[in-house]
Amino acid sequence: MITALDHIAIAVPDLQASIKRFMDDFGIALDGTEDVEAALTSTAFFSMEGTSIELVHPLDGQGPIAKYLEKKGGGIHHICFRSDDIDGDVERLKAKGYQFLSDAPKQGAHNSRVIFIHPKSCDGVLIEINQPAADH
Ligand code: CO
Questions:
Q1: Can you tell me the distance from the alpha carbon of 128 to that of 115, in angstroms, rounded to the nearest whole number?
Q2: Separation of 21 CA from ligand 1 center, angstroms?
Q3: Cα dihedral value 55, 60, 64, 67, nearest 10
Q4: 25, 63, 131 from 127: Cα distances, Å
Q5: pLDDT reported for residue 95
């Protein structure tokens, strides 16, 4: 079941500059940074009440975020729903005809399990479903 808006992800061309903006200009505390090898991303998380903002940047200049930045220069990349049963949600949505970017959930930040719904199944919005490590 989908239970919360886990985070909104923004693709950024300069991770350090964006971290500095969120900390110094917006005054939001940095929770931490993490390189997610499986997704080829460097990430930074900022908690806000009930949800968080994820800054995403290509790891070693590669992967889907690199392509996104090449095309768009930066922007809102995806929104993420938290799930307490990612396998059940994927199965239910596949049965309704939703397409996903991978066959099965992969490892995401904070050792969560994540999968992305294809934007063409959701009015052009890339939606991640994420099950936190404690729930699986
Ligand atoms: Co995300």
A1: 6
A2: 19
A3: 100
A4: 28, 18, 13
A5: 98
Ion ligand 1 contact residues with beta carbon within 5 A: 9, 54, 80, 128
Q: Could you list the mean pLDDT of each consecutive 10-residue stretch along the chain, which spans 136 residues?
A: 97 98 97 91 94 96 93 96 97 98 91 95 97 81
Distance 50 CA to ligand 1 centre (A): 15
CA distance 42 to 14: 11
Q: What class, spelled out in words, does domain 2-131 have in CATH?
A: alpha beta
Catalytic annotation, residues: 128
The tokens for 128 are 């991640």
pLDDT, position 108: 85
